[in-house]
Records
---
Amino acid sequence: MVNIIIISLILFFVAALFEIGGGYMIWRWLKYKKDLFIGLFGGLALFSYGVIQTLQQANFGRTYAAYGGIFIFSSIIWGAIVDKKTPDRYEIIGALITLVGALIIFFAPR
């Protein structure tokens, strides 16, 4: 059971990296007129995010509902590391609340 939880968490956070990274590359391509290659690579990363999500054991609805919390939490981390934007206490509290919610949605015994 512990292995399944660890694998699921790894998949969630890898998916978040690909989705946020892919969206970021497309953002930079369109907003800052970066090279088309950046946009294409971002699209490939977003496609990969979708594929990674299919590796989860749960059904689509539960996987994507839980992923929402992981995405919010990961986005705050991305902003702190990549955009050098220190999150305020409300962003941290909100991200932790959504992360706890995601873990309850996905890992609660059924």
---
Amino acid sequence: MFDFISERFSSLVQAFGSNKRLTEQNIQEALTTITDALLEADVPYALVTTFVEEVKQEAISQKVTASVKPGDQFIKIVHDRIKQFLGAQEHTPFAIESNARVMVLGLQGSGKTTSLAKLVKWVMTQKNVSQQQLLIASVDYYRPAAIDQLEQLAKQLNVAFYRASATQPVAATQEILAYAQAHDFSALFLDTAGRLHVDNQMLDELRSVVNLVQPTHKILVLDAMTGQESLTVAKAFNEAVGFDVAILSKMDSDTRGGAAFSFKYALKKPIAFVGVGEKLTDLELFHPDRVAGRMLDMGDIVTLVEKAEQCIKQDEQEEMNKALERGELTLQDFAKQMDMMQRIGSMGSILKYLPGMKEFKITPDMLRQGELEMKKFRAIISSMTPEERLQPKMLTASRKERIARGAGVQTADITNLITRFEETKQYVKLMSKVGLSKGFFR
């Protein structure tokens, strides 16, 4: 997410070199970098001009702070201005009240149906919502198999699904509302019909459905890969039926981030969530301050910790924490660590949350190699006996050959695993001695 902008912004500090203060020249060099990056990211020219002018005026008027480097001072200005553009005030976390009616809007191909399922999954994680209280339905009769897709997603979620007998959107909406009321569901999530592009027929039909449903939440799903076009789509929906918040889908794909950067400033509507993968759990709350930090390669440790807490059970965290505090680690623990990481996400997705990673210039090939190595390590440990996992010193040449055959690897891969494991053990012992391991997996 925002890799394109982040990569181009990473050179901002270099514009200041060894200068000890902000000057008109180094400010202009940095502003040129920002302008080029935003235009390449498909941010509308007018918004780029506005953003750059605001940064320039603040930088010029900035009082010199002796203890702060000019590059850091400028980055702080850019960070704060990005946060303003993305939405200085965070949107209140999505909450489902009694008798809620949630309508999801969007064009065909925007990821609307999948985003609805992800939203339901997210709502199910909230302590005051029971999945038995939720109903999913659809009035999308234009995209082949759209209703079938939603029914399958409802089964994955173990949430009630209703298929109307009517095949006309307005009549089907009336039937769905009657069913929801008769069965006393707390919340209805309704998927609506999309088109390949905005047209008057679609919007007229959508108005009729909105008037019937009287939704408590209207959510617009936009494909982040469409860039400036997504802003045009959002304006058309807003003028026709209005919406409360947006979900930007496909933020994990090769998107340049221009839509997300521009949305709040152009539409005056908040982004509530971003879709960051294909799994039903791959929906994140949108935090402007965290996103601004990620754009400037400052990382986002808070979101990473939240993802870990969602994916790793409390007892697993406590068990690993105890092992770290003791300064002891077995190959079994090592395997559990790798499994935990895999649940959080790929190696590449995890690194994006860590600060300063652009400096290491980690290439896609390096990430692929790292993922392959982890798969080998897991296969090797799975091929060991419980005793071998606890006492790797038992691994004689004959044992290594047996394990290699079972894991489908070379004996050199086993030697590599043991080397990495010993390095990790030394690091864990050091952490334990200085007291840094406590709460590491909290």
---
Amino acid sequence: MLNTSQIKEHMDVVASDGKKVGKVDHIEGADKIKLAKSDSPDGKHHLVPVGWIDHIDQQVHLNRAASDVQKNWSVAA
């Protein structure tokens, strides 16, 4: 079971192919990670579902490649 309380601000979010896709801004609701816009290629916040997380250590590791993450993340309002 994934413990989202381990996710902290400014942690790197890394795709399954080892590419960094962003930094954690905060947890949005119970099921999304909001990525910091300062680390975004388009200067916007993006949301990544918690269901995409493979594991958490010093970084948040996703179970998808960076290209898939960036194609399917949602832009935060």
---
Amino acid sequence: MSNKKKVKFKDLIGSSQPVLVDFYATWCGPCKALSPVIKEVKAELGDSMKVLKVDIDKNKSVAHKYKIQSVPTLAIFQRGKMIWRESGMKTKSQLVKIARQHLEN
């Protein structure tokens, strides 16, 4: 049994630090292909931006609230608001560039 405390999504995205969220599903081929890219982006960005992966099948209420209808969908949140969103595959360089643009704001 896990004693891991369940953290609310709104608490994770509520900080002034931008948060890159990868909405994915375990059955989604492109999501699996994107996973190592997300890890590389996280490594490159370091502590400047948090990176979260959200399984839409295990977090249906979050997926519904943000109208996630296709996966992978990537979004950047800051202070609880979605400030960027796009569905589909992205390369590491595309994601790092997008993330850095939002870090400068």
